[in-house]
Amino acid sequence: MILTARGSIPKRLVVELRRDANPETVLGELQRRTALLSNYGAILLALVHGKPIQLTLRQLLQEFLDNRELTLIRRTRHALKRAEDRLEVVEGLITALNALPKVIEMITAAPDAASARASLQVHLDLNERQADAVLAMPLRRLTGLEQESLRKEAEDLRQERARLRHLLDERPALLDAMVAEFKALKKRFAIPRRTRLVEGGDELVAQRTAAQRPYTEVLRQRAFEGLPSDCRLVIQADGQVKVVSPQLFGRLHLVEPAPLGDNPSPARLILPISEKPALLAFTDAGRVALLRWEFAGQQPGTLEKFLPEGMNGEQLVQLLPLPSREQAAGASVGLLSSDGRFKRLPIEDFQELSGHATSVLKLKDGVTLQRVVLCRDDEDLVVASSTGRMLRLAVNDANLPVMGRNAQGPVLLRLLPGETVVGAAGVSPDGCVLLASRSGQLKRLPPRACDAASGATSGKSAFASTSAAIS
After folding, report:
1. Which residue of 90, 245, 346, 465 has the lowest C-beta tally within 10 Å?
2. Exposed e or buried b per residue across 220-255, where buried means at least 16 C-beta atoms within 10 angstroms of its C-beta
3. How confident is the model over 333-373, as pLDDT tens digits?
4. Using an 8 Å Cβ cutoff, are 439 and 388 in contact?
């Protein structure tokens, strides 16, 4: 029974339960089926140093505080300059008033304003701005009250100058001033909270969210715990995903050369499950999701079986093993589209992915994701086209800046009519690039065989073939 408790402000909604009812279950159902608890998404996209970057809430707040501090510093410097300029003029007027008879004599004896200005500068040690202020001073300044107001203004300007210099020299004082501004804005614009903050609120929200969504993550964890630690994850070239024991793995001979004939499909990836590898699956629509390979221990199947339902109908472009947090230092994920555009995303954007598909690349109509590359700061990026042209760029912020998810990225390779991008790879300085054509030709090249570029270019022909591929 639902009652409205009258006589209290604000009104409370009271739900009376039966003796055998579970309060937590009822509250969870109310939050899930009614507007008692509402969730909404927000894309925290901001321009950071002129670059569009998708930030976390903590990063957004930090960037806002940095911006407010910089704004306060600039405003303080501007106020300090105005105070110093005004103090300079006031001190010049006070100097002229202290030697008023001499000033009148010099002005009346001068044939023109320029001569009077020069005479004041020489005899009273004034600069040009002070001399102009003396010449423009009205006669009312000669009264005793006006002279006293000038001296009081000079004292106030000196105190203001000292205060502004203190703000610029002492950062704690500047931060105190910024906090005072925030409190004034809060007092002026803030409205009372309609909710209350409780300790451990994040854990409660996580528990309620987990109760509302499918138990996929829980089932994945249970499936992984049921796998023997010495098994291996095998993903074959035909898309089959298997978790095999050491005995079966040895009988498959997947790591040994095999003669031509009816042999099992070669392995694309072989990973030990003891390290709990995280595999990112990218589709041609620019979306990514974690591969739920843990369920392959119960029933093997194709890759599509272990992807979220939201990726149905999209073509899988590449699987990328996600490095651990220790190995991810200096790493980023590069995305190459079919129109020759390339952009880098921070590796942190992929370390907290949920079980749902996420868009990481904004594509135009007719453009698809072509290749995914794990980039490192000490490597070069090599891009190849279907005509055998190759382009090399150093991986750095100047050539390939890190961008947000909604950006398309700059054009790296100007494509000719009928030409397509076939691949890209990250190469270390002592590594090599292997080019392969559809006719079976192979060519091995060091990265320095192609001149380094710094932007969009036509590249250099590295393979005389009408259809090349890079690996």
Report:
1. 245
2. beebeeebeeebbbbbbeeebbbbbeeeebeeeebe
3. 989 888 888 888 888 888 777 667 888 888 888 888 888 98
4. no
